[in-house]
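We modelled the chain as a single entity of 540 amino acids. Its sequence is:
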Amino acid sequence: MSNSQRKYILAIDHGTGGPKSAIVSTEGEVLEWAFKEVPLHVEKGGEVEQDPDDWWNAIRNTCKQVIDSGKVSVDDIVGICNTSQWSGTVAVDKDGNHLMNSIIWMDTRGAKYIEKFYKSLIQVSGYALTKMLKWIKRTGGGPTPSGKDSIAHILWIKNELPEIYNKTYKFLEPQDFINLKLTGKYATSPVSIQLHWVTDVRDINDVKYSKKLIKGFKIDPEKLPEIKSSIDILGPLKNTVADELGLNRDVKVVVGAPDVPTATIGSGAVNNYETHIYIGTSDWITCHVPYKKTDIYHSLASIPSAIPGRYIIANEQEIAGGALTFLRDNILYHKDELLKEEAVPDVYKIFDRIVKKVPVGSNNLIFTPWLIGERTPVEDHTIRGGLYNLSLEMTREHIIRAIFEGVAYNVKWLFNYIETFIQKWKIKENPEIRKGGIIIPDLNIIGGGAQSDVWCQIFADVLNRNIKQVQNPIQANARGAAFVASVGLGYLKWDEIQRCCEISNIFTPNPENRGIYDKLFKEYLNIYKIMRKPYKRLNE
């Protein structure tokens, strides 16, 4: 297809660090993109918020930047699709104005209300057994004790800020708030609303609100938005927004989905059991699966995919690349009195060069990336990060490599349970795979961390699996949003997506590193077993 015939999607990848806006062809080619950072407001007591005005202003600025670049004619931009951070809450009034900052996915203030919800004589991993059975049957899971799910945010607002709760017309996910700003319409998708834990997903082709679950949380059902499919056209762009951005007024906004399910599509791993790792601020491992299933002990569950009629495995680990950002901003280049005038270089490329020089295993130094607790494969909001086995002969070079490796150990911890989750299904469909064999032989890798060749090799070595580096991995979310819009607008079919995602490199495990990484991973698990109780005493 010639450039004059091609059509394009304005894709918005609205992450925690800030939005990336991109011009993406209907077949997934990213032509232009722009990013703008937005601040994070963190306070003691578990408060983590962002200002929705900061989101919207950054989105407008980055959208204008890529549109004004002139890479494509505005007449060829046919749709907009947003993919946002997940498990956040924006309280808005009838005029679409937000009533407070957004409570985002890191916030734990609602934990005490989830604890109260689960209070029972019979508990399993902090969950009330009888309630969880009711919730798992209908929606596949339930709110985590950490208080980081959207429903926990709503319960916190209801109890702590009743005047805000009463004024709220709709509680919206960040995904749905941006769609409101684009179209003026209040809506959600089966994927976006999932972490409210109030939908019945037993019939994946007809996801709807459950009156029993909503009643169980004692929230007002009218404060929840209408459910639409991820590939539905929500409406045309608002005239005021179209005029400000310089787009045609008939540009269509597709509902889309939050970051995890959209990245799954943008990774190119769209068939059942094809797996990807995302390494951004946080990380996850997921794949499509054919059935509904829940592993309550390790916080894994089948939930709706952005591909209508299908499930993906839900999970997330709180910190991955965020550990490197912490190192940069809070230790190496903290804006204190001594360094306030010092410019911050592009440290990530410097980190890569340093890590290559340090011996595998970092002289047995182990880093745990639990800087804000953990979700999977353990639900524990009181554990914290640390450096173990630090000694005088070490330098910051050892610490930096240990951070890279510590994130990989954490991913392996989760990966082992992902393989177990799908093992029975995959062996049944592939009898040549024996129990105890390799269930997932390779994984696509995407996100900002996937740009690091040395990190990709560390993942291959630690997981003992082939790691397939997706081309332009940092744009997987935007590419996935564009694919969702392309299908919704009729330019692409789901089974055509895999050919649109190229693999730039394949990293194979180095058998010489097997012994050291297996030993250190075993000790990594021991650190959690030993330290979880002291961390609980310190941070509860």
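As a brief sanity check on the tokenised model: The domain at 89-172+190-227 is CATH 3.30.420.40 (Nucleotidyltransferase; domain 5). The longest strand covers residues 77-84.
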